[in-house]
Amino acid sequence: MIMRNKALRQFGPGVNIFDMMSTLHEKYGSIVKLQGVFARSDLVILYEPEHIDQVFRSQEANPLRPGFQTLEYYREVIKKGSLDGIYGLTTAQGEKWRDFRTKVNPALLKLKLVKVYAPPLEEIAQDLVQRIRRYKDDTKYLEKNFDLEITKWSLESVAYVALGSRLGCLGDDVTKDHPGFTLLQCSKDIMDLAFKLEFLPSMWKYIATPAYKKIIRTYDKQWEISTKYIEEARKRINERGYDIPEEEKSVVERLLAIDEKVAILMANEMLFAGIDTVSFVATSIIYNLARHPEKQQKLREEIRSPDTHKRYLRACLKEALRMWHVIPSNLRRTDRDHYVAGYHIPAGPRAKEFIPERWLADKNDPLYYGNAPAIVTLPFGFGIRSCIGRRIAELEIETLIKKLFDEFEVTWEGPPIKVVTKVGNTFVEPYNFRFKSIK
Ligand code: HEM
Fold first, then answer.
1. Alpha helices in 9-61, H assignment, sequence order
2. Atom of ligand 1 nearest to the CA of 158
3. How confident is the model at residue 339 (pLDDT cuts 50, 70, 90)?
4. What ligand 1 atom has the least distance to the C-alpha of 332?
């Protein structure tokens, strides 16, 4: 095991986690320890699949995930009275987490229940396609605003699943004072500020720094807007005055029947955790296909074929998730000693290339994904604490990608896209996509 404090200096604005992790790996080996500063725990980075597996599995019953300490503080201390000890999935630990997760799992992860959102998600994806159609010749607009457009789509989609109605962010006459825009901004600010406060050196645990004050204001704003939307959803449900089949209910309606506080917090977290994550992955697929016209054409043929099993689409989604993880690190807080020896992870076959075919290749093919240990790519995390939005996210993204590549030929004109790490990874403008209608 090699430990170096100075490795911490490599964190900084504009950092890209993939480069940083490779550099640390090359320099220090397969186990790297970053010493905690300002009341923060030490961080040990593991590169060896067996070691990752060993640590994850040791916590299978009750996984502890650190992070979002400012949100934890906000909910535990600042919002103490109103939330009454329920902290939501992102911040709860131990029995509290298990109880919450047991209540929400069926509503969010049952594939049959998630699939009922397919028709409204199609409509929302169609709205984005229509907006791109309108702006496709205004490359200056898209270079700057592609991210805004795609995050409006991901917010609109996840909000529909959570609340059962449209927010209207993708409309033509939407102005910047639409509350949806504030939610988008809150989600970005939280990523940015939480990274500064919780990953870079910060004194916020001792003094209220400007970034700390800003994140608390942002949590307040995000809470205020999301509860307003949740209240509206509740009012609509009450005014309807009759029950509807379970499969047609929004997540909030399903959960209100079980536990009111859990329903509110789950919907609140969806309106934050389901925006930039989903838009990042959708952008990553569009970008990779724009850079690989032959794969784009192969996908288009599948989209247009009558076969309902869109296997290549699924492979493209998996490949994009594998190449650039949204959440740059799968964190666990250790609750016991681990004894892990250090050696390098062998690079997976052509690991840096976008090759969706690896997910379809058979066992004899050197590309076969099973040749690399599954543990090296965990885009949705691990085990029972893994992402609860997974099914929803996959459905949203596949729906959009089908529509988009049916409608447009997409190219990328410019230098490779840049990834910058906040709490999640983000792409940065300019978005050099060019969309050509082909329908
Ligand atoms: C492609 C999009 C997404 C990716 C790649 C992603 C990835 C992740 C990852 C890696 C984790 C940590 C898992 C772990 O610690 O093992 C996580 C947790 C979580 N995600 Fe997602 N996510 C996505 C979309 C969503 C959506 C749409 C929602 C909204 C429903 C969501 C809500 C959450 C929540 C609430 C947690 C905490 C779960 C817990 O601790 O029990 N995510 N996500």
1. 17-28, 49-57
2. 27
3. low
4. 15
7, pLDDT greater than 70: no
Give the count of alpha carbons within 13 A of 363, CB side only: 0
284 lines ligand 1 (CB under 6 A): no
- Continuous segment of H or E residues that includes residue 3: strand 2-3
Query: Which amino acid type is present at position 199?
Result: F
For the stretch 257-277, pLDDT in tens is: 888 889 999 999 999 999 999
Find out whether the beta carbon of 59 lies less than 6 Å from any atom of ligand 1: no
Range list of β-strands (E), 232-319 = none
Say how many domains are in the chain: 1
Q: Is the CB of residue 88 below 6 angstroms from any atom belonging to ligand 1?
A: no
pLDDT in tens, 74-102: 888 888 777 776 778 988 888 888 999 99
Q: What is the CATH classification number for the domain harbouring 164?
A: 1.10.630.10
Q: Read off the pLDDT of residues 207-240 as tens digits, 9 standing for 90 and up.
A: 889 999 999 999 999 999 999 999 999 999 989 8
Verify whether ligand 1 is closer than 6 Å to residue 277 (CB atom). yes
List the structure tokens of 362.
């058979």
326 lines ligand 1 (CB under 6 A): yes
Specify the pTM: 0.82
Burial of residue 94 (CB within 10 Å: 0-12, 13-18, 19+) is exposed
Give pLDDT, residue 6: 47
Candidate from 60, 316, 380 with most ligand 1 atoms within 8 A of CB, to mutate: 380
Print the domain residue range for 43: 2-437
387 annotated to bind ligand? yes
What is the distance in A from the centroid of ligand 1 to the CA of 146? 23
Task: Give 327 Cα–ligand 1 centroid separation in angstroms.
Answer: 8
Spatial separation of the C-alpha atoms in residues 313 and 315, rounded to whole Å: 5
Q: Whose CA is closest to 262, among 230, 289, 235, 288?
A: 230
